[in-house]
Amino acid sequence: MKVLIVGSGGREHAIAASVAKSGRVDHIYCAPGNAGIAQIAECVPIGAMEFDRITAFAKEAGVDLVIVGMDDPLVGGLVDALEAAGIRAFGPRKNAAVLEGSKVFSKNLMKKYHIPTAAYEVFSQADEALEYLHSGVKFPVVLKADGLALGKGVLICNTLEEAEEGVCTIMTERKFGSAGNQMVIEEFMTGREVSVLSFVDGKTIRIMSSAQDHKRAQDGDKGLNTGGMGTFSPSPFYTKEVDEYCRKYIYQATVDAMAAEGRPFKGVIFFGLMLTPEGPRVLEYNARFGDPEAQVVLPRMKNDIVDVCEACIDGTLDALDLQFEDNAAVCVVLASEGYPLKYEKGLPITGLERFAGKEDYYCFHAGTKAAADGTIVTNGGRVLGITAKGETLQEARKKAYGAAEWVSFANKYMRHDIGKAIDEA
Ligand code: AMP
Ligand code: GLY
């Protein structure tokens, strides 16, 4: 088979590494990819939003399966475009990717189908949102721009003043563009966060091993929100009781709700959960693998990823037994100092060769590229994701931090407390 992966981050490198293990695949393409993906796939210089070019390329190259890693092309309808051209594609169609693409849609869906989530109100006018904030709501409140905003469209506001400012940022200044045409104001919840990824074929859902992300830039969950500074899997806080509750009230209920709405979901549903004192609640849905959750979950998956993707497309997931290794993985993101704001790019990276042939270690590239002379240089805020597997989370963490020292670049920055919560479990 020939497989094309769409995207260019650490998640897509992890997907490519999984596809490379499949005995059924003899050629992998990635559009546009990065310097690490280029070591196992043929990268083609086509952007993830260039639907016509992706479709034309897939047809011309005789691609048998396209795996779309990123949210933007999914929400924009890349899977629909590929299907219309007769190309098999893994990921939700546009009418189902709205589960991630619109917070208003997902909140209304959860309300209609009684899926546990924070109480909320929807607004399409700034003055109405402000009026609501003055009506005696409890602080903190959480403001969410409706659409995709690179993970930045969520504001936690501790006071009325902060919330007023937030409404202005989202709806008046339109800092997140059209994502702020509508907004959600919701109740603030407390608890531990867990990411649960799943494969879905429209009817059946298979849950992957749990994970936890670290979104803030600095140790101790301080600093700005980022795309994710590190992950571990499984989460020791995702207990059997939590799993049972989510299976009963959240997972299948979401899949059934989407089908009932005439939007059958095929692909990956990422459940962002908060384990509140009242039980698990859905914080958000994503319509794709998490980044950097994929970098700890996929290396532990025993199944051939191509089999699983095909089962989702064909609606035969009920016949598939999804299995994970009985171990743990930790991913430490090596970022550029200054991320997520301002940082330097183009700095040479050394030590990458130390990962060659090392079992249980992975160096997933995120923001890298090959310079004209072939040197691999930094090319983004998140540069690499260093993953290690171990028998326990503690062992995996020790190995991942050890391997994080194998690699050097001038403005290398990482958090030193990825997986620290494990010790409290
Ligand atoms: P989201 O993109 O909706 O997952 O929001 C990003 C982050 O904001 C989440 O990972 C949480 O840390 C936080 N968050 C979102 N909604 C709430 C809420 N209702 N209560 C507390 N924190 C929240
Ligand atoms: N790691 C969170 C996300 O992929 O959205």
Characterise this structure.
It is built from twelve helices and 23 strands. By secondary structure, it is α+β, with helices and mostly antiparallel strands. It has four domains: about 90 residues, Rossmann fold; about 70 residues, ATP-grasp fold, A domain (Dna Ligase, domain 1, 2-Layer Sandwich), CATH 3.30.1490; about 130 residues, ATP-grasp fold, B domain (D-amino Acid Aminotransferase, Chain A, domain 1, 2-Layer Sandwich); about 100 residues, Phosphoribosylglycinamide synthetase, C-terminal domain (Glycinamide Ribonucleotide Synthetase, Chain A, domain 4). The strands form six sheets. Strands 12, 15, 18, 19, 22 and 23 form a six-stranded antiparallel beta sheet that branches.
List the SSEs and their pairings.
Layout lengths: L1 E6 L2 H12 L5 E6 L9 E2 L7 H11 L3 E4 L2 H6 L1 H7 L4 E2 L3 H8 L1 H10 L7 E4 L2 H8 L7 E5 L8 E4 L2 H13 L10 E5 L4 E10 L3 E3 L4 E2 L2 E3 L3 E4 L4 E4 L6 H21 L5 E11 L2 E8 L7 H4 L7 H10 L13 E9 L24 E5 L2 E3 L5 E3 L3 E9 L2 H12 L7 E2 L12
Parallel strand pairs: 1-2, 1-4, 2-3, 4-5
Antiparallel strand pairs: 6-9, 7-8, 7-9, 10-11, 10-16, 12-15, 13-14, 15-18, 16-17, 18-22, 18-23, 19-22, 20-21
The protein binds adenosine monophosphate and glycine.
Adenosine monophosphate binds next to β7, β8, β9 and β17.
Percent in helix: 25-40%
Structural class by sheet pairing and helices: alpha+beta
CATH class of the largest domain: Alpha Beta
Topology, number of strands? 23
Q: What is the count of distinct domains?
A: 4
Query: Would you identify the CATH H-level superfamily of the largest domain?
Result: ATP-grasp fold, B domain
